[in-house]
Amino acid sequence: MAPSDIYETRRTEIVGTVPRWYSAGIHLAVPTSIGLGVMIAAAIGLVHVRLVEWLTIPATLFAAFALEWRAHKSILHKRLPGLSLLYERHELAHHVIYTDEAMEMRDRRELFLILMPAYAIVLVFLMVVPFALLLRSVASENAARLMVATSMYFFLTYEWLHMAYHLPRTTRIGRNRVIGALRELHRRHHDPRLMRRWNFNVTVPVFDWIHGSIWSEAREKSRESRRATRQPTSS
């Protein structure tokens, strides 16, 4: 069987696991509505925000970029005890049907394999709340509200950008130059040869830049050269 036939067979099998009851529209709308609702509720309570409190926004985004990079590198591409389902869904399903040579979704129902589960935004909110409460006690309620709102903004940005990268290039979003540049970074990550070492930020490559993990041919050759020099020589 030709490699292309094997790919199509495997792709069909994976897409076939999408439940019959699945609705792409609901999957996209529910987390978006929850996220926007929390953002609005948090913003409504802001009162006389000081300049130093506004710094909560870039600080929260910076932490989110770091978490995105670390989780992608250390959880989604490694089989860890208790977290193997995340690895299987990401590397053994998402990365199998979407490669650097076949990034585009073919049907809306494939959003099941691209977006996080709809309940994930609730889990993120519950994870953020303790930190927000701590921030309120040591800083201010404004800072806590800005942290919650920014966390929801980041989650939605992640989801919508990731979806955009896998939309057909012929769509209006797919033709956008900014989306195209970010999609190219993500496309490199979908190269099976590169996915465990390069381009882990899905949104903005802040921590890929910090860690030097933005792929380029020169960087890859340099890394391989350093690795070769560390190999023990046989006598």
Distance from first to last alpha carbon: 44 Å
- What number is the mean pLDDT? 94
Catalogue the unreliable spans.
Answer: none
The figure for the number of domains is 1
Strand content: under 5%
Estimated structural class? mainly alpha
Order of helices and strands: HHHHHHHHHH
Give a count of the beta strands, DSSP E runs of length 2 or more.
Answer: 0
Largest sheet: none
Per DSSP, the total helix count is: 10
Q: Which shape, going by the Cα principal axes?
A: globular
Question: Could you please describe the fold and organization of this structure?
Answer:
By secondary structure, the protein is mostly helical. The protein has one domain (3-230). It contains ten helices and no strands. The chain has helices at 3-15, 24-44, 51-54, 56-74, 84-97, 120-138, 141-165, 177-189, 206-211, 217-230. α2 (24-44) runs antiparallel to α7, α6 runs antiparallel to α7 and α7 (141-165) packs across α8.
Indicate the topology.
Layout: H1 3-15, H2 24-44, H3 51-54, H4 56-74, H5 84-97, H6 120-138, H7 141-165, H8 177-189, H9 206-211, H10 217-230
Helix pairs in contact: 2-7, 4-7, 6-7, 7-8
